[in-house]
User: What shape does this take?
Amino acid sequence: MKKLLVASAALFSATAPAAPPLPPPEAKVADIARNVDAARMKATVEKLVSFGTRHTLSSQTDPKRGIGAAVRWAEAEMKKLGLETLQTCDTVTKLPRIPTPTKVCNAVAIQRGTERPDDVVIITGHIDSRVSDPMNATADAPGANDDGSGTAAVLEAARVLSKQKFPGTIIYAALSGEEQGLNGGKILADYAKAQGWNVIANLNNDIIGNSCGSDGVCNDKQVRIFSEGLRWQGGDELRAQVRSQGGENDSPSRNISRFLDSLAERIPDLGIDVMQIWRNDRFGRGGDHTEFLNAGFPAVRFSVAVENYNQQHQDLRNENGVEYGDTIDKMDFPYLARVTKLNVAALAWLASAPPPPEPTVEGAVSTDTTVKWPQVTTAKTYVVRWRRTDANHWQEAKVTGGPDECPLAQHSGGSMPTSSEWSLGPCQAVLKGIRVDDWVFGVSSVSKDGFESPVASAVPGGAFKPWVKPAEPAK
Ligand SMILES: [Zn+2]
Assistant: This one.
């Protein structure tokens, strides 16, 4: 969101010529993100292109050409960083694009959190590639931008972030089978479910390395973030609740989008502005984040501001003077590095912040609104935020978390409780004169060192955990 940035820059320049120093949490992640290296990322994309094709139906065993060699290489690169690595695989038959049983494997690395190892953020890109015919597994399919760029972001994020320690866990994954039907995304989302991971966000990067379209339109200042509005996972039951209580723009994925926009704005030296696109993906198109959403996990897609359709899914050829094909020479590596910096900053931030709370709101036929949420054990304070229903960003804020709002629960026994018998009671903030009908409410949690989580909206389906149908009231 550029407008606010320009306004605040003008404000600062009237009083002080130099940019003000960043607050400590922003400064910390900015320092980490600064290590992203465009030249290294170019070398990664060159290596990926050197596998000839990375088509999902290409050779699994050839040491130099095909998807098998590429996935093994990506895993080995992450292992070299000292990370715990594995391949998550499944044998897939999925018509029309995987007609016979085919092993589909993702290269995955895990950086376990020091305090909250089950709270997980996941960066993904897809390592498989294709040409014009989606079934052609033999022609050269460089897939430099789609999605060598996203895979390079995964590997560069792993390189930069593996030197640090975080309270939460970060997962790095190069996914396969995307072009044949989002297979790698589904395999990893299923794996996350089986592990019982509390997925705070999947940041999926797919086509993030070019800045000009075939019509000559260029934009190297912005990255698009795609997010679903009403979460798909709850189906008609959730839709009915949202119709009654609101929340059309308040899925956790939409709040991840708001978080990324705000983070890019607060750290100008990342050099990238977020263009929030409030839809799940490009018109009629898809990506691996959709499989995370289907599993109930918050997920967004990063993609370039301006796509070049001559350079995606194309046979390498020259037709009437127009060059077709997804080759390295069409990419913009300084731009790719800036998009990757935003990913790195966001991963570092999300792995440092506590998970968002799960708020609910009350206040029908009342002039006041009450927001309630169970305490998050790793949060020091909370921020209650609210905005008009048609505002894109949170507008009002109240910091809470003192003993009045977040008390220890009463001990129910007769004698004095021991300290281990005290538990954290629910928090409650009463907003006087604020009518629940006219606003959307949300709550974020803040760590002791100032990292604020994304906001979870107090709407049906607003919690970051997978939506579950509420139990029927007892009859
Ligand atoms: Zn792609």
User: Anything to note?
Assistant: Residues 333-352 form the longest helix (20 residues). The pocket of zinc ion is lined by residues 126, 146-147, 178, 206-207 (CB under 6 Å). Residues 4-11 have pLDDT under 50 and may be disordered. Residues 209 and 336 are 5 Å apart (CA to CA).
